[in-house]
Amino acid sequence: MSITNPKILVADDSSTMRRILKMTLARCGFEDVTEATDGQDAVSQCKAQNFDCVLTDWNMPNMDGLELIVTLRGMPAYAKVPIMMITTEGAKDDVIEALTRGANAYIVKPFTPDTLKQKMSELLGS
Questions:
Q1: What is the pLDDT of residue 4?
Q2: Treating both helix axes as pointing N-terminal to C-terminal, what angle do 113-124 and 15-27 enclose, rounded to 10 degrees?
Q3: Sheet containing 105-108: which strands, arranged edge to edge?
Q4: What is the mean pLDDT of the chain?
Q5: Contact at 8 Å (CB) between 52 and 2?
Q6: How confident is the model at residue 126 (pLDDT cuts 50, 70, 90)?
Q7: How far, CA to CA in Å, does 93 sit from each of 9, 36, 60, 107, 111?
Q8: CA dist., res. 101 & res. 108, Å (int)
Q9: In this predicted model, what pLDDT tens digit does every residue of 60-92 receive, in sequence order?
Q10: What distance in Å separates the CA atoms of residue 88 and residue 76, rounded to the nearest whole number?
Q11: In order of start, what are the domains of the chain with their CATH numbers?
């Protein structure tokens, strides 16, 4: 299933990383991007509107990325929405834990625009 003009939520406590992701996504053709400053902010935004895909960092204050994934998977509207973890946590056990908790994809920072584009295409079928 391909989604036209998907709404994407980017959750990262680093404003620089959010800006990099937003610019990279725009270059890949994904322009409807909303930013969240941490997991709690992301949950609030997900309750207020529907997103087609969520990208989250792992290490964030208030609510980390793993907790965000578990929380979103518990919300009927987000039970099947693609979620990608984008983090510096690259150990095999971390990848397995994130995927087991409900992430659909995992990218280790730093990443290339091509890697992000490929993963987004896989997640959204574009």
A1: 76
A2: 70
A3: 32-36, 7-11, 53-56, 83-87, 105-108
A4: 95
A5: no
A6: low
A7: 25, 26, 19, 14, 19
A8: 17
A9: 999 999 999 999 999 999 999 999 999 998 899
A10: 29
A11: 7-118 (3.40.50.2300)
